[in-house]
Amino acid sequence: MRYLLIDAYNVICATDSLREIMQGKLDTARDQLAEIVRSIHDAEAVHVALVLDSRNDKLEVEHPYKVKTFEYLYAPAALTADGVIERMVARVNNPNDTSVVSNDRMVRESVRANGAIALRPEELFEWARGCELRLSQDTRRRNAANAKDFRNGLDL
Prior knowledge:
This protein is of the alpha/beta class. The protein has one domain: Rossmann fold (3-Layer(aba) Sandwich). It is built from 6 helices and 6 strands; from the N terminus they run βαααβββαβαβα. Helix 3 crosses helix 6 (121-149).
């Protein structure tokens, strides 16, 4: 299983359109980021986790799309989202199957040192656009094939 860990608030703050949404609507910006990267999850069967800072006492998990392979991870107050990401990368069986997205150079260097792939937000959005295009092309192809195979069995 491939993993995509996103330093969510960091990516939101590094992206003009999401940063504008975030002003007073942090959950809306988070959900918009999730919608953007959902195409990666759907097109490539990648386990996606948006990792967020919180004031919680312990790590909390939320599944916004009701699937276990797409989640919001809320870091405990004693640990930042960066710390959660670094610990997860250090603990995975195959770090080469893990991509981490952050605009923080220190986070990217840390995860690279542990064998994971480090991406900047721009690279994430490019990846998501490519997956969205592939999904829409697949849908058009399936619809065309279904229309071709469909025949009205009634002679009216």
